[in-house]
Write a sequence for this structure.
């Protein structure tokens, strides 16, 4: 189905939680679900987004699914730690969801499509289980949107290696810019996509540390073995690239910018849906 480029280590689980905390308000501030809603979170992983979904919509039922048993165990433990009672977890293949047609009022998928070899097929499955009039929310990053200062040749090359390694596994870390056409190809209508830019500098050291130091740098470091095996960079250049990326979070003149893309669409009832009705879904 797919290979997760970042692996399944304890450090990766920690990175996912750091990332979720750093971008929580940016991507979640306009997503909540009404009381009584049944919401499918597709590809919940270790539960980093699940906690926010369940907390922001306490009277909705979140059904969080993933194909990885170990990840599900981590997600269950996290939900229990937060005392969440409105979450159900299940093992599921996104290409063959074990649910009937139109079982869910809403679907949420975050940082998942980039890892799939056939994201349209997965979206078609999500559309199948979504009731007419229900919403789908998709959030993805786009590594091509990323830039920083100070910029060095080695830091640029290391970042490019992350993109190339993910592509070699059948994934697409540039998928954020493709949300609209992917949703359209999967049969969704009333699609709205909004960019969510995250900019930081030394005036916000907490964000700089959380996103660059604890999210971006570990994410790039995670492909080291593949980079060296594929001879995409030599060891010395790779080490300098990682050093230069890490330095951004420590340099008083360091800046970093990254853009996420959030797409919201509604499964058609056969008539028109006012775009304004998508804002709070």
């Amino acid at each position: 189905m797919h290979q997760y480029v970042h692996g399944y280590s304890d450090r990766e689980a920690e990175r996912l939680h750091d990332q979720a905390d750093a971008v929580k308000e940016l991507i979640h501030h306009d997503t909540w679900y009404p009381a009584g809603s049944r919401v499918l979170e597709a590809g919940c992983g270790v539960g980093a987004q699940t906690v926010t979904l369940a907390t922001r919509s306490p009277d909705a039922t979140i059904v969080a699914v993933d194909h990885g048993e170990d990840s599900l165990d981590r997600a269950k433990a996290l939900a229990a730690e937060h005392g969440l009672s409105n979450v159900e977890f299940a093992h599921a293949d996104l290409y063959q969801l074990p649910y009937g047609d139109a079982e869910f009022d809403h679907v949420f998928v975050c940082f998942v499509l980039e890892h799939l070899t056939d994201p349209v097929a997965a979206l078609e499955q999500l559309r199948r289980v979504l009731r007419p009039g229900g919403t789908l929310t998709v959030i993805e990053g786009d590594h091509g949107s990323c830039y920083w200062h100070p910029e060095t040749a080695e830091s640029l090359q290391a970042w490019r290696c992350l993109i190339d390694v993910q592509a070699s596994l059948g994934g697409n870390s540039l998928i954020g810019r493709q949300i609209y056409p992917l949703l359209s190809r999967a049969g969704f209508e009333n699609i709205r996509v909004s960019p969510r830019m995250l900019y930081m500098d030394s005036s916000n050291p907490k964000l700089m540390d959380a996103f660059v130091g604890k999210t971006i740098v570990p994410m790039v470091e995670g492909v080291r073995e593949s980079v060296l095996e594929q001879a995409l960079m030599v060891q010395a250049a790779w080490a300098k690239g990682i050093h230069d990326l890490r330095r951004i979070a420590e340099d008083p003149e360091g800046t970093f910018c990254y853009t996420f893309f959030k797409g919201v669409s509604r499964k058609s009832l056969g008539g028109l849906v006012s775009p304004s009705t998508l804002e709070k879904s």
